[in-house]
Backbone:
């Protein structure tokens, strides 16, 4: 399994017992969807390794306590501590309406209500305080904040995102 075929679920943040249990901090708004998993992929040295789950329980919101098969001691748990956890993309719940996962809109055409066609969505930068659409316009990057008020329509069938941005925002990047 390759990372591009998966989504990030969370990170192993601590050991829970001397029997090899670990706690995962889930990166999701809906932790209940992931309380009864059979397996996950653990990122070990840039390789996704499948780990099968013996038992799991949700605790304190987005914390998931797991006991993996073959991880039976503190030393075993220590070896996977701080590892990222992934699941295959086909396990993502279906989103409706204008909701989308970042990975599924890469390559969409961005069209502004005033400016017109801006370009193609190259990536989403979510490392800043406000996530940004990074749009390729003839080799230049145009940054559009991913604010609900700006995003007017997401058309998955035609692969377009319609936005309404403040006057002059887009021309800042292309003039």
Residues:
């Amino acid at each position: 399994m390759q990372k591009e075929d998966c989504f990030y679920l969370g990170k192993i943040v601590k050991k829970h017992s001397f029997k090899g249990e670990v706690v995962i901090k889930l990166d999701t708004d809906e932790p209940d969807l992931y309380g009864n998993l059979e397996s996950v992929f653990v990122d070990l040295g840039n390789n996704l390794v499948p780990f099968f789950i013996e038992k799991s329980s949700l605790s304190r919101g987005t914390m998931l306590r797991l006991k993996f098969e073959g991880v039976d001691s503190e030393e075993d748990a220590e070896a996977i501590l701080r590892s990222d956890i992934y699941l295959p993309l086909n396990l993502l719940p279906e989103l409706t309406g204008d909701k989308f996962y970042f990975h599924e809109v890469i390559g969409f055409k961005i069209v502004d209500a005033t400016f017109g066609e801006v370009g193609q969505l190259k990536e989403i930068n979510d490392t800043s305080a406000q996530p940004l659409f990074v749009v390729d316009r003839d080799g230049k990057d145009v940054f559009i904040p991913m604010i609900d008020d700006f995003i007017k329509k997401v058309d998955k069938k035609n692969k377009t995102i319609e936005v309404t941005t403040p006057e002059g925002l887009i021309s800042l990047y292309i003039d």
In short: The two ends are 43 Å apart (CA to CA). Residues 149 and 164 are 8 Å apart (CA to CA).
